[in-house]
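Folds abound. Consider this:
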Amino acid sequence: MVDELVHYDVVGGTATITLDSPHNRNALSAQLRRELSESLDKARTDDAVRVVLLTHTGPVFCAGMDLKEARGAGAGAQGVNEFPKILDQLWTSPKPIVARLAGPARAGGIGMVAACDIAVAVPEATFAFSEVRIGVIPAVISLTVLPRLNPRAAHELFLTGDVFDAKRAVEIGLLNAAVPAAELDEAVAGYLKSLTLGGPKALAATKTLLSKPRPATPSEGFAAMNELSSGFFASEEGQEGILAFAQKRKPNWVPED
């Protein structure tokens, strides 16, 4: 029996999805892709899950596509064909996803980091869009990465394939924070706790809102946004939040400590 490469665990409203294939630097092999996709589906449909943590074992978060599997395969048989589904699962998850990086990410690994809502890494973590260095292009991951990155930095880093550090990753919008290794878990836990304070439906709708194209002017969007906002104020979740605020208690969706 083949050992699993992705672990799924739920504690206190947080689903932890752990990449555990350190022998190949958590590369996106066929098995890892399949198990990661299955885990993301579980988190999406599990009512006990409020937020998702994407993390890893070993010194590398994810090295990108498994190049051993890619060697000699035709275009239709390339593993990258399955990767858009995973990026879409991360990007469209109604439950916020936090990426925890205790080590480097490359290529497709960066695509996953960008698809998460919040990303935290240690200062020693490095990054590179290494595709051009092996004669391929960062096409699929561009759809999650480019909305995050400063355009000038995107041109530089996509075209050169140069390695950059976590400090630069924060500056250009790829990461939310870079913290010392001893503080990584505490920083991640802080984000996870904050996210569980939001109403589940409100969080899902806010994620959708963040991904929508902006109207040309605010006045063009006010009618639709007012309808959306008033609907949430009147909703069961909204009324529970308002009542909890008045009664100085936690809303019923906040997990017990």
